Amino acid sequence: MDSLPAGWVTPDWESGTPPPQTGRIWFAGSMLAGVSVVLAFRAGDSDGITPVPQLLAFLPWLLAPAGLGVAISVLTLWRTGMVWGMAVLFGLVWYIDPYGKISEPTGAPVAELRVMTSNVQFGKATDALIAAVGREKPAIVFVEECEYGCSRALEDAFGGSGGAFPYREAVEGAGSDGSVILSRFPLKGADGLPGTTMGMPGAVADVQGHDVRLQLAHPMPPLPGQVGVWRRELGELRDYAAASDEPTVLAGDFNASQDHAAFRRILDTGLRDSSRLDGDPRNPSWPVDTAPLLGVQIDHVLVSEEFSVNKATFLDLTGSDHRTLVVDLTLHQRG
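-> structure tokens emitted (335 positions)
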């Protein structure tokens, strides 16, 4: 039997009081055990059940409880905890590495376009979005949670034959159900993703003579009791991404990060994350109150292999709990 670690206090069996070291070791063990469970699902390429999907979103921040477990193990000379904790820390660092392809297109450039995606939180950030669009001058805008008032305001500000965005595809709805795609390029209607909880319109844009598929993403968040819906709707986005080899832009509030297996399935179709290509794969986009110091990147612009990314920038809009993402893209001929 191993000798007791230095500082160990013999329990007072008559009073039933455990030694102080025992309580510390149990606390460290509980920290490491909780993080280990989440890490095991990440290693197993699975999102599991509540609360695992919610915790996976904040995988990098699990370094804090894991580090605390290691520190307590060192202070109490708990050798098992030291080894266990270092293995957990190594696993977290390993999976924090960005996921997905980063190859660049080889064909000649044929068009430049700026894309914006913004969740306006039930329309509350509509005025701020209109001002941001005026400043940033994107060619295509994806707007999530654009309820009836938001949709009318965007039409009044930008619509019509003489407006900045004469083309649009929308799913009208209240609250979080409404979504809109605005475009300076001519649009052909597409089916989008019908039957989803929140509106996800789609279109095909004529970008200087080149067809580009556009799809807005806004699946159900992984709320307790709704994880199955969230997983199914991300699966439908994955099927959309895999259904064609044409140039594609899939953008919006995915309610998922690269640490979610359901989101990685989308990247496995060959789409690339613009923020990753710009070297900023962990910049949090939600929640605004704690980002960029603490949060998760769940707002994405995913592009097919025909696109290169020149710059990806996150903006704060008054009224929204999400940061807006602006990406400068170059469309290339297929190499």
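The CA atoms of residues 188 and 204 lie 5 Å apart.
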